[in-house]
């Protein structure tokens, strides 16, 4: 049975040397980002498997782009919550030295909303004296499913990708987020009016990793998992592989796993520590950063 003792967890945290966090959709719920599978979430009418695939985009790029335009608009309005900020603060070597001396830390996120990157920018801008930390001691943020605001050319001859937060990304998508929010996106937009590559003019697609595509940074992540002696599982149901298997891999070579989820999920009973509740509350407390974030 997993332990729920926060003091025992913090003792393990203090002695850990190679720490990773695996983050999922639950990390961003408090920021107003709906989850894939939550009741009443984005997928009431449009199942994730039916939209987030290359085949779906080939069959109906209008519907897929309306869906991702909606997600872009939601993410643009969202702000990092205390769980994002706790992970970003913990990533600063100077902060981490007070909590887990001489340790490394990498956040591996399945989220595409960009809130972890924004939290890192927010934390660093609040502590400009830390901006000149050498690169080899800076935190690593690995967005294994890509970024919602990346826009990728579909032409194999071009392949241009750019970061684009324009709202709306093209005129034809303006206002369609309201239909998606209501579970009704039957308005067909001509392909010629959908987002285009800024380099060659071909049809562009959201720059996220879809089902049937290979996640990013897998070699780097596998090396980190092999080295990790502590794995924090934050806001994920641990059902989507390969991320779902990382915690068990850490345990197999003697590492510790701590799960932070709103409710029970797959693999909970195999965790060493389990903290149920909103991760924006449990995670800052576990990392000893509550006073920092709320001061």
Automatic annotation (TrEMBL):
Q: List, from the UniProt record, the residues annotated as the active site of this protein.
A: 145
Q: Give the reaction(s) catalysed.
A: N(6)-succinyl-L-lysyl-[protein] + NAD(+) + H2O = 2''-O-succinyl-ADP-D-ribose + nicotinamide + L-lysyl-[protein]; N(6)-glutaryl-L-lysyl-[protein] + NAD(+) + H2O = 2''-O-glutaryl-ADP-D-ribose + nicotinamide + L-lysyl-[protein]; N(6)-malonyl-L-lysyl-[protein] + NAD(+) + H2O = 2''-O-malonyl-ADP-D-ribose + nicotinamide + L-lysyl-[protein]
Assign the protein's first listed, main location to one coarse class.
mitochondrion
Domain Deacetylase sirtuin-type, by residue range, is 1-295
EC identifiers of the protein: 2.3.1.-
> Which EC class does it fall in?
transferase
* Comment text on domains: In contrast to class I sirtuins, class III sirtuins have only weak deacetylase activity. Difference in substrate specificity is probably due to a larger hydrophobic pocket with 2 residues (Tyr-68 and Arg-71) that bind to malonylated and succinylated substrates and define the specificity.
What is the official name of this protein in its record? Answer: NAD-dependent protein deacylase
Name the source organism.
Lyophyllum shimeji
Q: What is the lineage of its organism?
A: Eukaryota, Fungi, Dikarya, Basidiomycota, Agaricomycotina
């Amino acid at each position: 049975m997993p332990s729920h003792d926060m003091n025992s967890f913090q003792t393990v945290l203090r002695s850990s040397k190679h720490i990773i966090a695996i983050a999922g959709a639950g990390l961003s719920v408090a920021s107003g980002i709906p989850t894939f599978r939550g009741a009443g979430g984005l997928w009431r009418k449009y199942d994730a498997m039916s939209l987030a695939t290359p085949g779906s985009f080939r069959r109906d790029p209008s519907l897929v782009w309306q869906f991702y335009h909606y997600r872009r608009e939601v993410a643009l309005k969202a702000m990092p919550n205390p769980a994002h900020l706790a992970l970003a603060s913990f990533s600063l070597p100077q902060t981490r030295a007070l909590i887990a001396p001489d340790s490394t830390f990498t956040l591996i996120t399945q989220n595409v909303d960009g809130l972890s990157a924004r939290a890192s920018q927010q934390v660093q801008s609040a502590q400009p004296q830390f901006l000149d930390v050498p690169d080899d001691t800076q935190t690593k943020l690995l967005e294994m499913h890509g970024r919602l605001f990346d826009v990728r050319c579909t032409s194999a001859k071009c392949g241009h990708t750019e970061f684009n937060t324009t709202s709306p990304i093209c005129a034809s998508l303006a206002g369609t987020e309201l239909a998606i929010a209501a579970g009704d996106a039957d308005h067909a937009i001509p392909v010629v009016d959908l987002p285009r590559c800024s380099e060659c003019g071909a049809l562009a697609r959201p720059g996220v990793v879809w089902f049937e595509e290979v996640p990013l940074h897998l070699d780097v992540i596998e090396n980190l998992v092999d080295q990790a002696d502590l794995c924090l599982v934050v806001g994920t149901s641990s059902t989507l592989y390969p991320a779902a298997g990382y915690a068990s891999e850490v345990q197999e070579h003697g590492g510790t796993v701590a799960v932070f989820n709103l409710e029970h999920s797959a693999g909970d009973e195999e965790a060493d520590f389990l903290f149920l509740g909103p991760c924006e509350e449990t995670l800052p407390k576990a990392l000893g950063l509550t006073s920092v974030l709320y001061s």
